[in-house]
Write a structure and sequence with these properties.
Strand order of the largest sheet: 1-2-4-3-8-10-9
CATH class: Alpha Beta
Shape: globular
CATH architecture: 3-Layer(aba) Sandwich
CATH superfamily: Zn peptidases
Structural class: alpha/beta
């Protein structure tokens, strides 16, 4: 574990960007670096770790709650070749790892996880509101929470995008010295971003220009952030990996990737429908499956067998900030309620053993 040093020695090099038309955030919408640090210093019931430091020398925090289970000395790939893959992990309680802020301007997940930590520490979230059902659900699991992975980007990203349009995004884009804006998805043609050709680095990235979400090439992981996520996921032998992001449309659970176990794909489908029900929306009758894009979720599954999903939260819609927090709470509840009905990651079933 890194020394418990909360601040970056390069902090003065990072300046928060402003963006047109963003609504003023409420006091409980705490997403700035100094606010994240303040919330981490309040942790008493959970175990606080700094799992790595970013290229910009910011800490990446992990907070864990619940007891750990005994583990055998075997990794998941080795266990998959055995008659009993669950020898890798047969967790009691099951382990859920929730991460946010991999793309730093996408702060709804950061808000969700900081409010979850407050609930677990004090019984009330940062609004001062109780959520006994969610707290009770959490008591059945070991939780490992990474409230903000991309701390470099967070040091420069705006506080929120509520009420903005896609045309307001210029301060967040990567811009070449010739003035060309590198927008999604074409920006994925670079890894890392061509730093010597840029006049502005976008907020997707850490300070070295890496998109942490896509830093998952076996044997060639580039960023300390991605390495720390994968090492922590293996150390904890996670059963479920919840990856919080934000988008410019309605909130949604991204369908599972082809690059997964069929049993995990069904679990994502079931959690997705459970979340839709909580939103009062029509559920999917047939499972939708994404193409085979690889990302950090796939890497976590390859390392642990865990079911992994990405949850996109609505960032732009002008609506009460409480609504945005409810989207995140509902996703956490949907995953945990599902895990009480059937195991989130029955490792023997993944391989039909």
């Amino acid at each position: 574990m890194e020394e418990m040093r909360f601040e970056s020695k390069y902090r003065d090099k990072f300046v928060t960007r402003t963006i047109n038309h963003a609504q003023p955030r409420p006091s409980w919408w705490r997403v700035r670096i100094e606010e994240l640090v303040e919330e981490m210093k309040k942790v008493k019931k959970g175990k606080l770790e700094i799992i790595t430091r970013t290229p910009g020398d910011f800490p990446v925090f992990a907070v864990s709650y619940g007891k750990t289970s005994p583990h055998r000395k075997v990794n998941w790939p080795s266990a998959t070749g055995s008659p009993n893959p669950s020898v890798y992990a047969n967790n009691d309680p099951q382990v859920i790892m929730a991460v946010a802020g991999i793309h730093s301007e996408e702060c709804e997940g950061i808000v969700t996880l900081l409010n979850l930590i407050s609930l677990l520490e004090t019984g009330k979230d940062l609004r001062g509101k109780e959520n006994p059902h969610l707290v009770e659900l959490c008591s059945h699991y070991r939780l490992v929470i990474l409230p903000c992975v991309n701390m470099d980007g967070r040091a420069v990203a705006p506080d929120c995008l509520c009420g903005c349009t896609h045309d307001d995004y210029l301060p967040l884009h990567s811009v070449l010295k010739n003035g060309e804006q590198l927008k999604w998805p074409a920006l994925k043609e670079y890894f890392p971003m061509p730093m010597d050709e840029l006049s502005q680095l976008g907020t997707y990235y850490n300070s070295e220009g890496y998109n942490i979400m896509l830093d998952c090439a076996p044997g060639n992981i580039k960023t300390p952030e991605a390495k720390a996520i994968l090492q922590l996921a293996d150390r904890e032998r996670v059963d479920c990996f919840l990856n919080f992001h934000s988008c410019g449309g309605g909130s949604h659970v991204i369908p599972p990737s082809h690059l997964n176990y069929p049993r995990n794909m069904k679990t994502v489908f079931d959690i997705r429908n459970a979340w839709l029900e909580k939103q009062g929306r029509e559920t999917d009758k047939e499972m939708k499956v994404r193409d085979g894009q690889s990302d950090i979720n796939v890497a976590v599954t390859l390392a642990t067998g865990a079911v992994a999903l990405t949850f996109e939260m609505d960032a732009l819609t002008l609506e009460p900030f409480d609504n945005k927090l409810k989207y995140g709470y509902d996703l956490l509840e949907a995953a945990m309620e599902h895990g009480l009905k059937e195991p989130l990651c029955p490792r023997n079933e993944l391989l039909g053993k």
